[in-house]
Amino acid sequence: MKIAVTGGKGGTGKSTVATSLAVEFAKTKKTLLVDADVECPNDHLLLNAKRKKYSDVFQPIPKWDLKKCTKCGKCASVCKQNAIVFVKNKYPAFIPDVCIGCQACKVACPTGAISMTKKQIGTIYMGKNYNVDLVIGELKLGELASGEIVSSLREKSEEINKKLKSEIMLIDSAAGIGCPVIASLVGTDYIVAVTEPTPSALHDLKRVLYLANHFKIPSGIVINKFDLDKKFYKKIESFAKKNKIPIIGKIPYKKDFVQSTIKMKPVVEINPDYEKIFKEIINKIKNFKK
Amino acid sequence: MKIAISSTGKTLEEEIDPRFGRCAYFLIVNIENKEIKEVKAIENTAKAQSGGAGITAGEIVANQDVKAIITTNLGPRAFEIFDQFKIKVYSGQGKIKDVVNEFIKGNLKELSNANGPQHQGLN
Questions:
Q1: What is the CATH number of domain A66-112?
Q2: Between A82, A86, A88, which is nearest B52 by CB?
Q3: So what's the ipTM on this one?
């Protein structure tokens, strides 16, 4: 079963929930956690797992055969990224930094002067702790294509899982609802949307659940720090009821969670009382499946 | 030969704009026999772009068929364009008229690498 952990707003506790669920799942089932927050991956820190490089991620970039180039400028005119600059009577100038690898230039070139080469845009790492296997994607600094990294990470996770044969694959997504988040959600069986009782979190939750609905993936809401604001908690509850989305977990606002982050230990290791919260979430996910 | 200067205004009396991609104007100066023959100001339409101003500005300048540019700081992307188009980059600051005269005398320093960070003009 593939479960995505997302939520829209940053800082609601996606990684805390994802790592805690992974540790809890791993007690009974072989579990793989995929850290798809490729701009700022942190799950290895929360689980105190050493990272080992698995592979590099590349992106295609164009290369010109100047013997075939007729200086027509078509490549530059189709480049949406403005990575190709054309000036009359000169060979095109190319800024690899800005290229996202769409290959439109190659298609547009009437003389076949453009072929593809590649540049590194990220790295995939592996790690393990608390019986949880971890696969991590990390975008190279200055690169733009975080969605590409997530897609590549998802493919590699499948490849890795052929050997690991994990029953549970948890995908911890980035904040937001853009390309890297979409790439984290597609092809999953269930979406755990982590939120908190604040106006910005509810606003963003609605947007991310819209995505879940678009992809027709069943979802459940986890309200983290639910006791922060009782009134607003009720607001989230009535939103969930109205839209028939189950609230599958409530996590209190406690210092233990801060300690967990600082000490790089899952929260259940700090205080075993939280075990039942995550067990209950797992049960609700499983029951939904049936 | 023609050169381009990142400028705060439209005449040689103005100061150089230290930012290349987000300068107000480019002065296109035609130099013949070590003398300033003609000055033309073009607006930098890339100035307010949210991103990639250096690239668009580089394109604007390269389209003027200049052999060299003078600015104070140039970011890596614009530098890449001038490097590939074989347009030389010189660093200067102060009143444009003085800087151009220094250029004619051969006293300006040629840049062989980007000396400004990306996005510098946004600050």
A1: 3.30.70.20
A2: A82
A3: 0.81
